[in-house]
């Protein structure tokens, strides 16, 4: 894949693992300067080391997407290091499955704070820099849970549905300002988040409704490929889209 990303500066939240990590590695391989942002500092340094060992350029910076001061400091560090910011990729996220009757307010607030409010905070902090950048774009990670309801996922669906429509709102508002905004909506992907889900006591018939026709999970790299395309000028006419990448689960 040749996406002509040389010289572009891309900030990736959630870059320490899963889809964020795969995205950071791919973007660096395509020539972008990648700012890797996450709360998991040791894992973050490992990603940056891997990028640098392969000849790429990267920055590791701790980011708590629920903390406005942390978000502002992280974006400022990116611009201080690279002088600009062309693309923001919001891959930081949390989830899990719990019966709604057992869903505590604290967990509801935590999921929305990270998945939805965190996306707002990073976009808000990055926007002044994106407005002055060439080929500026935002790629937010929603989910097929943001496109359809899923049992045991009330908070996650609410947060990811919010991300999808938030992204479309930005796309409309920023189109004349030359900033594109798109959302990627993965289905089941083999990430630490999925691997760690606890399903004990849940109705497996309802869980089965989330399956795709192939009865398989995607890989983080599958999603990273789409994100890299949306971050590139190859997608210059694409904005306001919510792409399902799910093996046909919502077909």
What can you tell me about this protein's structure?
This protein has a single domain (9-241), classed as Rossmann fold, CATH 3.40.50. The protein has helices at 18-29, 41-53, 68-82, 105-130, 154-174, 192-195, 204-208, 220-231; strands at 9-13, 33-38, 57-62, 87-90, 136-141, 179-186, 242-245. The two termini are 27 Å apart. Strand 1 (9-13), helix 1 and strand 2 (33-38) form a beta-alpha-beta unit. With 251 residues, it is an alpha/beta fold. Helix 1 (18-29) packs parallel to helix 2 and helix 4 (105-130) runs parallel beside helix 5. The protein contains 8 helices and 7 strands. A 7-stranded parallel β-sheet has the order 3-2-1-4-5-6-7, with helices on both faces.
